[in-house]
Write a structure and sequence with these properties.
mainly alpha, 15 helices, Glycosyltransferase
């Protein structure tokens, strides 16, 4: 109940801030300049901003599974708005500033952020199924997510292989590379959900989602080796330990959720029954990996902000920190239910509030950033 009051208070605070922004626009008579401001913001839009949709969506799902329906629906509403706005800005960038977009896509640091579009699309599809019981929209979102995944998975890695000059490993790789894993597993999860709606193709779709799950596992292990090598054998500064390193944990958590969904669907495909012991063990392996990351990442964040005194302020990358917290809540809840591991039941009930607190802080920061940036640009026009 306290979580609901906190959410409502923050929502009212954010809405009042937006109303203030609208009033300032009206007073200054700068409506005609609004288009220029939007275009300027879209020109250098952070590629990983769909992590906002990922984070909001998975926390909404977590609250729904914990039977906190009102809070779940509120987040679902916010998420649909955020998804449309971000697509609008992305399409503006694609058609008005294609060179900027391509430059980001072929960049080792910013390029992985584009995978958040895939993950955000598929997580929103999960919301439509679980919260709204709308399979039609979910199926459309799955095909969109699958199409984007096929383009990005080959476009990005081809660009990384052929692009010259290549950066040094300490500057060219970070936790954001794991978003490729998150995108892959998000397509697998939503595909497993919608397979039952294609009776003639159900086994084909489930086999395909199994292949995606295994590919995501392989990709996680490959990237993990590079990330761990970078963290342990190269100098790490407070500035270089960016919030997207939390996706180290989030990618393992969503892999756990993908495995749990396949376990739930094992009765619909004979081959899944044959490999069920392997599937349970491998999924537990990724849950254990996600769990191991959590204390280490908290320690490193304390080192960054309290020991190294790195300033704490809003950054769109923080949504990539919020998402893993929500995903760990959801994956633990689902995995414990499908395996009967009752000793894990208490974890989601507490962890979901940590995720909500992180989401609330990021959301307030986002609203403050929108208001301050727009007012600053209005005054300069």
């Amino acid at each position: 109940m306290k979580g609901i009051y906190l959410f409502l208070a923050l929502t009212l605070l954010s809405l009042s801030g937006l109303n203030y922004l609208v009033e300032q626009v009206r007073k200054k008579g700068l409506k005609t300049k609004l288009k220029e401001i939007i275009l300027k913001e879209a020109s250098y839009l952070y590629p990983g901003y769909f992590a906002l949709v990922m984070a909001t969506g998975i926390i909404s799902i977590a609250f729904y599974l914990l039977e906190m329906v009102s809070l779940s629906w509120s987040l679902f509403l916010i998420n649909r708005i955020a998804y449309v706005v971000l697509w609008f800005l992305t399409l503006v960038r694609l058609f008005r500033y294609p060179h900027n977009l391509i430059a980001d896509l072929t960049d080792h640091v910013r390029g992985p952020g584009f995978f958040t579009i895939v993950a955000g699309t598929c997580i929103l599809g999960n919301e439509f199924i679980l919260i709204a019981s709308d399979f039609t929209t979910a199926i459309i979102l799955w095909f969109i997510g699958l199409f984007l995944w096929l383009i990005l998975i080959y476009a990005f890695f081809t660009a990384m292989i052929v692009h010259e000059p290549k950066p040094r490993i300490e500057t060219g790789i970070h936790g954001g590379w794991f978003i490729a894993v998150v995108a892959t597993q998000s397509v697998s999860i939503l595909g497993t959900f919608i397979a039952s709606k294609f009776l003639a193709w159900q086994e084909h779709i489930l086999f395909f989602t199994l292949i995606l799950y295994l590919f995501g596992c392989m990709l996680y292990i490959l990237i993990l080796s590079l990330i761990f090598y970078r963290l342990t054998f190269f100098s790490l500064t407070a500035k270089s330990f960016v919030p997207v390193y939390w996706v180290n944990m989030g990618a393992a958590a969503i892999t756990t959720l993908a495995g749990a969904r396949l376990i739930l669907s094992s009765t619909q495909l004979a081959f899944l029954q044959d490999i069920l012991p392997f599937l349970k063990g491998f999924t537990l392996f990724f849950w254990a990996t996600a769990t191991w990351w959590i204390p280490l990442l908290f320690i490193l964040d304390i080192w960054r902000h309290f020991y190294k005194h790195h300033p704490l302020g809003y950054d769109p990358q923080y949504w990539s920190m919020v998402f893993p917290l929500g995903m760990y809540t959801t994956c633990t809840l689902v995995f414990s239910r499908v395996t009967g591991l009752t000793l894990l039941y208490p974890i989601p009930g507490y962890f979901v509030y940590i995720a909500l607190l992180a989401w609330s802080a990021a959301f307030v920061g986002l609203i403050y950033r929108i208001i301050s940036k727009f007012l600053q640009r209005f005054q300069s026009l």
